[in-house]
Amino acid sequence: MAGRGRGPDFVEALARGLDVLACFDADHRSRSLTDVATAAGLARPTARRLLLTLEELGYVRSSGGVFELTPKVLTLGMAYVSALGLWDIARPHLEGLVAQTGESSSIAQLDGSDIVYVARVSVPKLIALRVDVGTRFPAVQTSQGKVLLAALAPDELEACLAEPSRAGLPPYIGRTPEQLRHELVEVRARGWALADEELAPGVRSVAVPVRDGTGAVRAAMNVTVHAAETSRERLVDDHLPLLLRTAGDISAEWALWRSRPHVEVARRAAPETA
Fold first, then answer.
1. What are the residue ranges spanned by the domains of the chain?
2. For residue 196, how many other CB atoms are within 10 A of its CB?
3. Which partner for 207 in 77, 105, 109, 143 could form a disulfide, CB atoms 3.0-4.6 Å apart?
């Protein structure tokens, strides 16, 4: 929370405001002032000033002493996604893949030691986890995270794994660091990753990289299935080839979009007339 900045230009007030926004999630859609102050580690008067400021800016609304976020908060994340051009390109491909597999598909990017979902097309399934755009999970427990971690240079990987997860899940003890590094070597060599009930019981997924025009891995795309319905063999033999082809198509179109000859300049004001 607030108070962790070290640089001379660190703005503590901004950090505290972001901490307040981060207090709200799927399990805490509404919070009282006291709840916010406790969750953000702030004094109650400070939390009140921040909430009232966010309310005036349109990011928070209040009723009966309870605060909640407004849809305007989405603009903070969607500005990033829109700048990439990724969603506009990926959407028809994701929809086509979901139509072929009958399973949900998502795109995620790495943020510290977590993945964050930036695009998703889902089908109704009784799976233990709720996933939306903006959801974050520990990278080491997901197929997408393994793909993204495998693409890092050794020093980047070590720095990433040293960061604590912000996903709010219990620490993962499914493998040793050495076992993880060995698995990431395999993922890098074969070009895809599998996560078999590592994130939650019944959740099985396979993921592949999404690359930019230079070939660098910029995101990861998956197919998620219910373990009781779809075996590992079917996931790899039937869904993985379709996933690889779809991710390749998205990568190619994304590279073309990012290299487009498009420059936007400010509009000049019309000359004044006497």
1. 12-69, 76-258
2. 13
3. 143
Residues 6+ apart with CB under 8 A from 79: none
Overall pTM surpassing 0.90 (yes/no): no
CA angle 143, 147, 149 (to 5 degrees): 110
Q: What is the pLDDT of residues 89-122, one digit of tens each?
A: 888 999 999 999 999 999 999 988 899 998 899 8
Give which of 40, 41, 28, 34 is closest to 69, Cα–Cα: 28
State how far the alpha carbon of 32 is from the alpha carbons of 24, 37, 42, 225, in Å: 11, 9, 13, 38
| Closest C-alpha to 216, from 243, 255, 186 | 255
12-69, which class in CATH? Answer: mainly alpha
Rounded CA gap, 264 and 108, in Å? 28
CB 149 within 8 A of CB 185: no
Q: Which amino acid is at 63?
A: S
Which tokens is 249 given? Answer: 């198509």
